[in-house]
Amino acid sequence: MTLTWYIILSIIGWGLLWYFIFYMRYEHKDTVNQLRSNLKEADKEIQYLNWELDEYTQQNTLLKQKTMELLDRNDELSDVVAELSKYYVHIKKASEKTSELNKFLQEPSDVIEEKIKKFSQKEDIDVSNEKIFF
């Protein structure tokens, strides 16, 4: 008989325990539902943020690749600019020499006039010879 009382008391005890758990859960039902909805929203936001992270990672990789290409092009253009600056220096020196030569040609020089007269006289002789030859 004592064993049946223990079984009955344990069944009542378990029943009270389950009723207490159900009551506690029912009492905070709104809070639990709010927490569940917040958890679902947080999961959706995490998924969205992970998607954005993947997108930004791909964009970052592409930007790094394009940046490296542009840096290579910049190096090539720097070499071209260096070559052009060398040519510019040579052209500038040639321009200075040309202006110096121009200045000398603007001033009459007796030595040059004599050489030109001698040369023009030779040409006249050559031209007259050509006329006779033909």
What does this structure look like?
The chain starts with a helix and ends with a helix. The longest helix is centred in the middle third of the chain and has 78 residues. The model has no long low-confidence stretch (mean pLDDT 83). With 134 residues, the protein is mainly alpha-helical. The chain is 96% helix and 0% strand.
Sequence-ordered SSE layout with sheet pairings:
Layout: H1 2-27, H2 29-106, H3 110-133
Compute the average pLDDT: 83
Order of helices and strands: HHH
Main beta sheet: none
Number of strands: 0
State the helical fraction: over 70%
Morphology call: rod-shaped
Query: Please, how many helices?
Result: 3
Using the CA coordinates, give the radius of gyration.
52 Å
Q: In terms of per-residue confidence, which ranges show pLDDT below 50 for 5 or more consecutive residues?
A: none
Q: What structural class do the secondary elements suggest?
A: mainly alpha
Kindly report how far apart the N and C termini lie: 161 Å
- Give the amount of beta strand, in percent: under 5%
Put the structure in a nutshell.
With 134 residues, the protein is an all-alpha fold. The chain has helices at 2-27, 29-106, 110-133.
